[in-house]
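Supplementary Methods, section 5.1.

A reviewer requested that the exact input to the structure prediction be made available. We therefore reproduce it here, unchanged from the version used in the analyses.
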Amino acid sequence: MPVKARLAGTSSIAFRLLPVLLLLAPLAAAAQAELRGYWDAVARGDYNAAVAELRPLADRGNAEAQYRYGMLHADGLGVRFNDALAASWLRRAADQGHPRALVALGHLYKDGRGVPADAHMALQLYRKAADAGDAVAQNNVGFMYASGRGAAANPGEAVKWYRLAADQGLAGAQSNLGVMYLKGSGVPQDDTEAVKWIRRAAGQGDAYAQYNLGLMYGQGRGVVVKDEREAIAWLTKAADGGYGPAAMLLRQLRPGDERQ
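The structure derived from this sequence is encoded token-by-token as follows.
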């Protein structure tokens, strides 16, 4: 069963919910004060009120409000789903250099949602945010170079960007960097180094990395000794985290396991 790499930020949680929560803390005090009504509405689950709080701020050019207003349209929260409007508002924030808006708009171009599909444009947007130090963007630049999307495949360049994000502690990038070492793509093949990075991601609860770490224990690659019990323990964590292939493998290893 092959070891998997993944693009961070494409699931509904990683791409839409986690960045919203993680971006609250770094906001300057003035920006937090402006968005207080929005956050109060979100805490109540009242997205109609959240929309009403954001729109005037977005109209006045507040990049954070424009980003969040765009994401509400992308998610259909408090408004109807409308990827074209989402792209329009995300572009306004991106034009002000808002890193997460650049990433979100890049996803829309990558997937052709609300804008024509354009992998090269997606890479450009990711790269602008990556150059500003955004870890998710750095990971995604790495993924685009690793997969040859938006530019010619360049494993060495992919490794460079994965490492920048991994050094910031981004679990998805740590997992992807580990896979590059495992395959010997852009770096010399090194199972021990692969396990080091995959284990860091797995320790943060990343289900993809937990699955890969389970496979490596099961195969005895990069670990002190092949250990089926440790392999099953990590596969179980991945399955409990919702990663379907882990649950399928567990059912093969342990007939009667009911995980879906």
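Residues 7-26 have pLDDT under 50 and may be disordered. These observations are discussed further in the main text.
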